[in-house]
Write a structure and sequence with these properties.
The complex is a heterodimer of chains A (438) and B (293). With 438 residues, chain A is mostly helical. In chain A, 66% of the residues lie in helices and 5% in strands. Chain B has 293 residues and is of the alpha/beta class. In chain B, the strands form two sheets. Chain B has a seven-stranded mixed sheet, sandwiched between helices. Chain B has a four-stranded antiparallel sheet with strand order 3-2-5-6, covered by helices on one side. The chains are: A mainly alpha (438), B alpha/beta (293). At the A-B interface, helix 15 and helix 16 of A face helix 3, strand 7, helix 4 and helix 7 of B.
């Protein structure tokens, strides 16, 4: 044993390579294992955070997709809304439908006499109930004089009670739903007059001060018009700029300066673009405030650097042998570009564009500057109508004091994420389509 | 990511040239570097006079005078970095695509000067087309690869005419029998030798007058090489061919005339047989006997 050891020592002067390698293998393997563990931890952390984010958003927001409705019988009293019996549309739209709803509530609870109690009773149903009734009557005059059975949205506080956000056991002064209201609601529940239904309003209405009447559709269409303007401007301009700079422009100091500036623009805080848009598009050119057109222009400025940089990278990655092949048989630079380089660079360009668009979709800061933060109830019909966008809507709702807006906020975030996932899916599909050809 | 660009290759060539110089300086210093042999011919297709090429400050080619005859295959040989590819790329102004490259001197094609700035390179390259070292088919179908040239130049008036051009070009390139059943398959799916023949078919589809080949067989195996050499021999009937090659055997097999380049100088031009059996210049002899290169 000692002999062989001493022998080894004697030979240590000329150890074979394989012995040195073997001796080092253990620490090499350990290093590799450590690296793998670090990587797995990193990915695990990422997934964990994602999971926490999604679960908190979904658990907060899923209830916003349903809404509590109350069944009431309304006597559409002709003497109250159309005393002359002429059925003039103007008079009909101006009539006091709220009174009819109130009367129906009174008939349901005849024992409520005190004025203060009555006011609390009326608050069980949403103010939207009278609009709903008015629309029904205007659409169909024959309903006048009949007694209708209507499902009307409950007030947001009642909705919160039904969804279990309000603790019945807590002190009455600590909650906005009073004991009497809870008693009335329990009576209604026992009569099967209360039901949670799919919240169509959330997907079809614009913004509102009343949470139960507020919807995402106005902001979604605002985002849509804004992104259309952004896409129509930034994709062609960005690709054209990238192609020119990469393939045609001479390399000199001037193009160097342009290149540096494009890279710098990509790092400019987005709110600065908002200020620029306010100064140039609105104050100087006199474009409408809060309009998706201006929003689109501002976001175009913001996404252009992203698209140009991504497109140039895509163009650079096209092998030069392809260009030479085309040039070598007499194709003009333009033909080389259009027939060969552009199709090969297109997947990369599209990816860059979608990333830029996704950024634009999630951007709120520059849009605050150009007035897209206004409270807008109407749903925009085009790029010139005042509107807001999804992230700004989220910001507005997150800022509202009503408890019911908390779940609306989370629901709006879900809608925004859905949009983003859809856009990324489109990017992946487009890239696959272009790449699959060869 | 494709990182090896032609530009890099060309500048590397210049760097290699520098090292070559120091390595073999002792053997060539005493030699006279003027061109010997028959560098000029009667009734040439292309003439090159006092051609100098610079990569930025690097003088890559010195005062080259050479004629390229009609319907001949002229081979350009020489050690790596001697400037033969650079010279070849002057003939259809492919060097224009390299920013730092500057070409001086006069090159004519059928008595028309092609080196002036006012000449449009697009029609020039349709007349003097190029096949590259690495097979570079377009990532499109085999049909589209060949049809591209005729289409952009408007050589075919109808679809059937275009198809005819494609088929004849592929037949001339000896590729038709191998690809006729898969014309709509990508050209990049062919084997290396087939790809290079596809590139040659693509080039002859535009019916150029001169075909430049930059080491067309360097990436191919001997069988594919033999096929391409046979093809070059046939194409000679119709076209003038300049071929740059590393292989002296290939130069001997396919060419009628051979030009030997050494470190940017054109050392010797002459009939291929003469050059390989009885070189006049010491440098040529050193190279073909394998003393360097």
């Amino acid at each position: 044993m000692t002999k062989s050891l001493s022998k080894k020592k004697k030979n240590s002067g000329k150890l074979r390579t394989i012995d040195i390698v073997r001796a080092g293998m253990k620490s090499r393997r350990a290093a590799e294992t450590r690296f793998k563990i670090y990587g797995r931890i990193a990915i695990g952390m990422g997934l964990l955070f994602l999971l926490v984010l999604f679960s908190s958003i979904i658990s907060n927001g899923y209830q916003a997709f349903v809404q509590t409705y109350i069944k009431i019988e309304v006597n559409v009293d002709a003497s109250k809304i159309d005393p002359q019996g002429k059925r003039v549309p103007e008079d009909l739209s101006r009539a006091n439908y709220g009174g009819l709803i109130k009367a129906s509530m009174r008939t349901m609870f005849p024992e409520v006499k005190a004025r203060r109690d009555k006011r609390q009773l009326y608050r069980l149903v949403s103010t939207g109930a009278s609009y709903q009734l008015r629309q029904l009557v205007i659409d169909n005059n024959d309903l006048i004089g009949q007694t209708l059975t209507l499902w009307v949205p409950a007030d947001d506080e009642i909705d919160m009670l039904m969804k279990g956000y309000i603790d019945r056991e807590s002190d009455e002064s600590d909650r906005r739903v009073k004991d009497k209201q809870i008693a009335w609601i329990d009576k209604l529940i026992s009569e099967d007059r209360v039901e949670k239904r799919f919240n169509k309003t959330f997907f079809t209405a614009g913004d509102s001060r009343d949470p139960e009447l507020a919807g995402i559709w106005g902001a979604a269409s605002g985002s849509f018009f804004t992104l259309i303007v952004t896409l129509l401007l930034s994709f062609p301009i960005g690709v054209a700029a990238a192609v020119y700079l990469e393939e045609f422009a001479p390399r000199n100091r001037f193009t160097d300066i342009i290149e540096v500036n494009i890279n710098n623009l990509a790092a400019v805080p987005s709110i600065v673009f908002g200020l620029l848009g306010l100064a140039v598009f609105i104050n100087f050119f006199g474009m409408p405030r809060s309009a998706p057109l201006v929003g689109g222009l501002v976001l175009t400025l913001m996404t252009l650097p992203t698209i140009i940089i991504a497109s140039r990278a895509a163009l650079k990655s096209v092998p030069p042998s392809i260009r030479e092949a085309a040039l070598g048989i007499g194709a003009s630079p333009m033909q080389t570009m259009i027939y060969h380089v552009l199709p090969l660079a297109m997947p990369g360009m599209l990816t860059g564009t979608i990333i830029g668009m996704a950024q634009a979709l999630g951007e709120s800061a520059p849009l605050l500057m150009i007035g897209m933060v206004a409270f807008i109830v109407d749903i925009p019909q085009g790029a010139f109508d005042p509107s807001t966008v999804l992230p700004v809507q989220i910001y507005l709702w997150a800022d509202s004091p009503e408890r019911a807006f908390v779940e609306k906020t989370s629901a709006a975030i879900m809608v925004l994420l859905l949009f983003l996932i859809a856009m990324n899916a489109i990017a992946v599909l487009l890239r696959k389509r272009f790449e699959r050809r060869w | 990511m494709e990182t090896t660009s032609e530009i890099e290759a060309s500048t590397n060539e210049a760097v290699v040239k520098e090292t070559d110089k120091t390595m073999s300086a002792s053997t060539v210093e005493r030699e006279d570097r003027k061109t010997v042999g028959e560098n000029l011919v009667d009734n040439p297709r292309m003439t090159c006079r006092d051609v100098n090429v610079y990569y930025a400050d690097n003088h890559a080619i010195h005062d080259v005078n050479i004629d390229i005859g009609r319907n001949e295959v002229i081979a350009m040989i020489g050690p790596s970095g001697c400037g033969k590819s650079t010279f070849l790329r002057c003939l259809n102004r492919m060097n224009d695509t390299i920013d730092i490259c500057r070409v001086e001197g006069t090159i004519t094609l059928d008595d028309e000067e092609i080196t002036s700035k006012h000449i449009d390179v697009v029609p020039l390259r349709a007349q003097v087309s190029m096949v590259f070292q690495k097979p570079n088919p377009f990532p499109k179908s085999i049909y589209e690869n060949v049809a591209f040239g005729p289409r952009i130049h408007g050589l075919a008036n109808s679809k059937t005419e275009l198809e005819e051009i494609v088929v004849t070009s592929l037949k001339k390139a000896g590729l038709w029998d191998e690809v006729k059943d898969r014309m709509d398959k990508p050209g990049t799916g062919l084997s290396g030798g087939q790809q290079q023949r596809l590139c040659i078919a693509r080039t002859i589809a535009v019916s150029p007058e001169v075909i430049l080949m930059d080491e067309p067989c360097s990436a191919l195996d001997p069988i594919a090489t033999a096929k391409i050499e046979d093809l070059i021999d046939e194409l000679r009937q119709q076209f003038t061919i300049c071929i740059v090659t590393h292989s002296m055997q290939q130069a001997a097999r396919v060419s009628q005339r051979t030009a030997y380049f050494h470190m940017g100088d054109l050392i010797e031009v002459g009939d291929t047989n003469k050059i390989f059996t009885n070189p006049r210049h010491q440098l040529t002899e050193d190279y073909i006997t394998g003393r360097f290169g």
